[in-house]
């Protein structure tokens, strides 16, 4: 299949995108949300919602420089700012009560910097544990496959593609200046789950074709397996991506970033499962046969 034949082109594309992602992370850095750095968030509702510029000017005048104003739904507004005392909270609420407009405070929450640091650590632990669990599962599931590639190499390649699948979406988010919060981590974990599912489907077909001895050439076996699973992988991902695109364009503002990173991640994950993971098996097989 052409994917195996032209694997160097696909590897090059991935290397370039990963390099650009790391460049964005190194130069711009992550825009951590209040979940990770601490802060306060207030959600209010208006009978006639003012525009972002009006609210931003009012907040700056009241001493809330750097506060982020985000529209939600048809009449709600969310304001994210630094951690506030009770007096500052009351001042913020009064500032948002624009003269001539009816306002209702729906919720207020605050996260201290210590809790934010703890959440950040747990997020990293969650990602590492998920990757480790996936690797161990694949190594176990493919334990009877030893020729021409050992089972642990399937797990190693899966790890490489999973890292690829979270680095690229993260790099895109950094480049776009999007805020990184708990939903961002949930999205990355979801991306890994979808990506590893597609990878296992292809790997399982390779294992089956090795058992059936469809060819004495490993590259041909991999190409045949990719051809047999290609349509299924693409169609499944496209279906999910259409749903996510609908959520992004027509869903509430609070889920736009979440649906965007999932959309990017599933696209990247499908690419890596089809164009990267299996061709890497061919590369390892050729190197060990030398």
3D shape: elongated
Low-confidence segments: none
CATH overall fold name of the largest domain: Multidrug efflux transporter AcrB transmembrane fold
Number of domains: 2
Family: Belongs to the SecD/SecF family. SecF subfamily.
Pfam family, one: Sec_GG
InterPro entries: SecD/SecF_arch_bac, SecD/SecF_bac, SecD/SecF_CS, SecD_SecF_C, SecF_bac
GO cellular component, one term: plasma membrane
Task: Outline the secondary-structure elements.
Layout: H1 2-5, H2 7-28, E1 31-32, H3 34-37, E2 39-46, H4 52-61, E3 68-72, E4 76-81, H5 86-96, E5 103-111, H6 113-141, H7 151-176, E6 179-180, H8 182-212, H9 218-250, H10 256-288
Parallel strand pairs: 1-6
Antiparallel strand pairs: 2-4, 2-5, 3-4
Helix pairs in contact: 2-7, 2-10, 6-7, 6-8, 7-8, 7-10, 8-9, 8-10, 9-10
Notes on the structure:
- The chain contains ten helices and six strands.
- The chain starts with a helix and ends with a helix.
- The strands form two sheets. Strands 3-4-2-5 form a four-stranded antiparallel beta sheet.
- With 290 residues, it is of the alpha+beta class.
- The protein is elongated, with a radius of gyration of 24 Å.
- It folds into two domains: 2-34 and 114-288, Multidrug efflux transporter AcrB transmembrane fold (Up-down Bundle); 40-111, Alpha-Beta Plaits.
- The longest helix is centred in the last third of the chain and has 33 residues, at 218-250.
């Amino acid at each position: 299949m052409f994917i195996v034949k032209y694997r160097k082109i696909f590897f090059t594309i991935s290397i370039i995108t990963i390099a650009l992602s790391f460049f964005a992370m190194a130069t711009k850095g992550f825009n951590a949300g209040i979940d990770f750095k601490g802060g306060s968030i207030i959600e209010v509702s208006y009978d006639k919602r003012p525009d972002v510029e009006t609210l931003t000017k009012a907040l700056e005048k009241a001493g809330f420089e750097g506060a982020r104003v985000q529209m939600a739904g048809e009449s709600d507004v969310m304001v994210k700012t630094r951690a506030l005392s009770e007096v500052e909270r009351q001042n913020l609420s009064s500032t948002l009560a624009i003269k001539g407009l009816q306002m209702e405070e729906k919720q207020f929450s605050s996260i201290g910097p210590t809790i934010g640091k703890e959440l950040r650590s747990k997020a990293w632990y969650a990602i590492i544990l998920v990757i480790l669990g996936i690797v161990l599962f694949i190594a176990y599931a493919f334990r009877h496959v030893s020729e021409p590639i050992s089972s642990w190499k399937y797990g190693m390649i899966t790890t490489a593609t999973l890292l690829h699948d979270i680095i690229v979406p993260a790099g895109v988010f950094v480049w776009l200046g999007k805020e990184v919060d708990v939903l961002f981590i949930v999205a990355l974990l979801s991306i890994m789950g979808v990506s590893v599912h597609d990878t296992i489907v292809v790997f399982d077909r390779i294992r089956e074709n090795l058992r059936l001895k469809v060819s004495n050439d490993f590259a041909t076996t991999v190409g045949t397996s990719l051809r047999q699973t290609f349509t299924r992988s693409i169609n499944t991902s496209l279906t999910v991506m259409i749903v996510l695109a609908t959520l992004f364009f027509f869903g509430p503002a609070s889920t736009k970033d979440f649906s965007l990173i999932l959309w990017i991640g599933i696209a990247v994950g499908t690419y890596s499962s089809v164009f990267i993971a299996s061709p890497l098996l061919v590369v390892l097989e050729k190197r060990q046969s030398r």
